[in-house]
């Protein structure tokens, strides 16, 4: 997966990578050329006392060194640009893929894990791409070129390299192989830390209400300790690797000085040659160290790439049709025909044999006990889930045959837990229709009974809204969500228990305004309050995933025991008669 990601996302940056290769090669060649020049100065310039030769060769060495610096800077710049583009493109693709996920895929991965994969995991792949582009040419050129040139300088000392390089590789491979499972464990534990942190931030009010702070702190402490333990093990291996490499490097240098000194004393090797050989040994081991460092990064990046690949290779279970229907014969109509729905992995269906319909402009209410399947039922209308059996029709078209964008344009949803985005009142209301005028926004607010509090906010429509709408009350947040759905100008409005945070008077005024101002819009209302739905054209009573009552308020009082019990529990026995 790592190779697949690098090939796919670095391909558009081919010219940058070509520049990296060229300039890194130039830098490596310059590095390999300098020791031989240094040997010439020692053996020819200093020995013969030729000052002019020393100056000429020294100035040439300085020029080569400056060229090496410039080539390294340019190569690093190109590598950084290519890696940043890679990270940007992967994050874009992950975000696009996740945006198309159904609730099933989001739940399977977990929101915290998806965030980690799009941040930390992408960063690991991005870092490997940058370091790989930087060392890709340099490491092998320095290692291989250094070996060749070192042997040319003194074949008698070549056996030192033949011993040092394999020992260094063996040590690096042993240590790095132990890091692979630790990196995989570390990423999983990072997911856990992010998940707990996200839960605690989202549910801070619940935590405080139940005085769970000490327990939640302990839960986070345990997750944090787990990741610390794994990180400490990884750090211990890091600590072991680099001293081991430096030990081998220094022992090798000592060996070169020891045995080279013997050769110099015997007149078999010149001093300049010995110094050049020593520099080449340093270059060779530096190349091997670079390769080891790259190898060290690969396991962690490979784990991250696998996690990123899991997201990119996961396709939504809501497969859009090839030639989706964009025209709806009867806009506003909704029909359920023998619908059964089972959540993945569940033993029993949450909805069974659901059949009812809503004509354009009608109001259909859905009531039932907690867990009866009300929210699941209305989630099938915009195709947030696909039915297990049966058919859901919107505008006379099976939602599985409809173009998803066209389907969602015809439906306005006010979820059970309204969510506002950071921005302004206007930006939130225009979320579904960016070309809506200010007059349309105010009209929607008037229907949603939100114009009064918005006009009193500093800036009115331009008043700031924090992430999640935390700077407004629950009732205000709910009314803004209703206004947002109205601005969307849909044929079908779905209210998933959207009036629960409103007082009875506001609830009544809002419903009257909806019925009066939007007579042609079909309204599907999930409600807990009976007073909210008594005037509905049709009421669907759910119990244990099935319809146990269907009709008007008056009809259900006579025919449905379940509905009568709900009415009695809320309005008293007198109202149920």
Protein architecture, described:
- The chain is an alpha/beta fold.
- It folds into three domains: 2-312, ABC transporter transmembrane region fold (Up-down Bundle); 332-410 and 492-500 and 521-577, Rossmann fold (3-Layer(aba) Sandwich); 416-489, P-loop containing nucleotide triphosphate hydrolases (Rossmann fold), CATH 3.40.50.300.
- It is built from 19 helices and twelve strands.
- It has helices at residues 2-10, 14-48, 51-99, 103-109, 111-135, 138-153, 158-202, 204-209, 213-265, 271-312, 374-379, 404-409, 425-429, 438-447, 451-456, 474-487, 504-517, 553-559, 561-571; strands at 334-341, 351-358, 363-368, 389-394, 397-398, 411-414, 423-424, 464-465, 492-496, 522-526, 538-543, 546-551.
- The chain has a six-stranded mixed sheet. A four-stranded antiparallel sheet has the order 2-1-4-5, with no helix packed on it. A two-stranded antiparallel sheet has the order 7-8.
- Helix 1 (2-10) packs across helix 3 (51-99), helix 9 (213-265) packs antiparallel against helix 10 and helix 14 (438-447) packs across helix 16 (474-487).
Fold blueprint:
Layout: H1 2-10, H2 14-48, H3 51-99, H4 103-109, H5 111-135, H6 138-153, H7 158-202, H8 204-209, H9 213-265, H10 271-312, E1 334-341, E2 351-358, E3 363-368, H11 374-379, E4 389-394, E5 397-398, H12 404-409, E6 411-414, E7 423-424, H13 425-429, H14 438-447, H15 451-456, E8 464-465, H16 474-487, E9 492-496, H17 504-517, E10 522-526, E11 538-543, E12 546-551, H18 553-559, H19 561-571
């Amino acid at each position: 997966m790592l190779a697949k990601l690098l090939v796919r996302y670095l391909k558009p940056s081919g010219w940058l990578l070509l520049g990296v290769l060229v300039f890194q090669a130039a830098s490596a060649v310059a590095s390999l050329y300098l020791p031989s020049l240094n040997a010439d100065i020692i053996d020819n310039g200093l020995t013969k006392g030729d000052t002019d030769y020393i100056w000429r060769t020294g100035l040439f060495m300085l020029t080569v060194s400056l060229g090496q610096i410039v080539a390294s800077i340019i190569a690093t710049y190109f590598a950084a640009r290519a890696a940043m583009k890679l990270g940007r493109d992967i994050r874009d693709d992950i975000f696009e893929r996740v945006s198309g996920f159904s609730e099933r895929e989001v739940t399977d991965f977990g929101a915290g894990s998806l965030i980690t994969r799009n941040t930390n995991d992408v960063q690991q792949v991005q870092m490997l791409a940058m370091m790989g582009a930087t060392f890709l040419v340099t490491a092998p050129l320095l290692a291989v070129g250094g070996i060749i040139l070192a042997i040319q300088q003194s074949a008698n000392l070549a056996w030192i390299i033949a011993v040092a390089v394999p020992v260094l590789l063996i040590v690096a491979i042993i240590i790095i192989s132990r890091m692979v499972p630790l990196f995989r464990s570390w990423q999983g534990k990072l997911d856990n830390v992010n998940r707990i942190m996200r839960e605690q931030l989202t549910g801070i009010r619940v935590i405080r209400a139940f005085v769970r702070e000490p327990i939640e702190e302990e839960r986070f402490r345990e997750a944090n300790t787990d990741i610390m333990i794994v990180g400490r093990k990884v750090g211990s291996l890091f600590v072991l690797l680099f001293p081991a490499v430096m030990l081998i490097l220094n022992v090798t240098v000592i060996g070169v000085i020891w045995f080279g000194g013997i050769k110099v004393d015997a007149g078999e090797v010149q001093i300049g040659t010995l110094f050049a050989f020593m520099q080449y040994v340093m270059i060779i081991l530096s190349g091997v160290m670079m390769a080891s460092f790259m190898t060290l990064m690969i396991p962690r990046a490979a784990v991250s790439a696998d996690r990123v690949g899991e997201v990119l290779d996961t396709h939504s279970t809501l497969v859009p049709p090839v030639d989706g229907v964009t025209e709806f014969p009867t806009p506003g109509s909704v029909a359920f025909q023998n619908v059964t729905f089972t959540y993945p992995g569940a033993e029993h269906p949450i909805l069974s044999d659901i059949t009812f319909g809503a004509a354009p402009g009608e109001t259909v209410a859905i009531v039932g006990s907690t867990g009866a399947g009300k929210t699941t039922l209305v989630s099938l209308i915009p195709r947030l889930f696909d039915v297990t059996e049966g058919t859901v029709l919107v505008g006379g078209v099976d939602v599985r045959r409809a173009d998803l964008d066209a389907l969602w344009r015809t439906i306005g949803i006010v979820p059970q837990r309204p969510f506002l985005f950071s921005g302004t009142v206007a930006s939130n209301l225009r979320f579904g229709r960016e070309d809506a005028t200010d007059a349309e926004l105010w009209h929607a607010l008037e229907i949603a009974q939100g114009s009064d509090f918005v006009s009193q906010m500093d800036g009115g429509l331009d008043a700031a809204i924090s992430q999640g709408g935390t700077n407004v009350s629950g009732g205000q947040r709910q009314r803004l969500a209703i206004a947002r759905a109205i601005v969307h100008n849909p044929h079908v409005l779905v209210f998933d228990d959207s009036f629960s945070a409103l007082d009875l008077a506001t609830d009544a005024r809002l419903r009257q305004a909806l019925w009066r101002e939007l007579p042609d819009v079909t309204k599907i209302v999930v409600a807990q309050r009976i007073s909210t739905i008594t005037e509905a054209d049709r009421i669907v009573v759910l119990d244990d995933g099935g319809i146990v009552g269907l009709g008007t308020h008056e009809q259900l009082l006579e025919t449905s025991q379940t509905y009568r019990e709900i009415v009695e529990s809320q309005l008293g026995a007198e109202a149920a008669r």
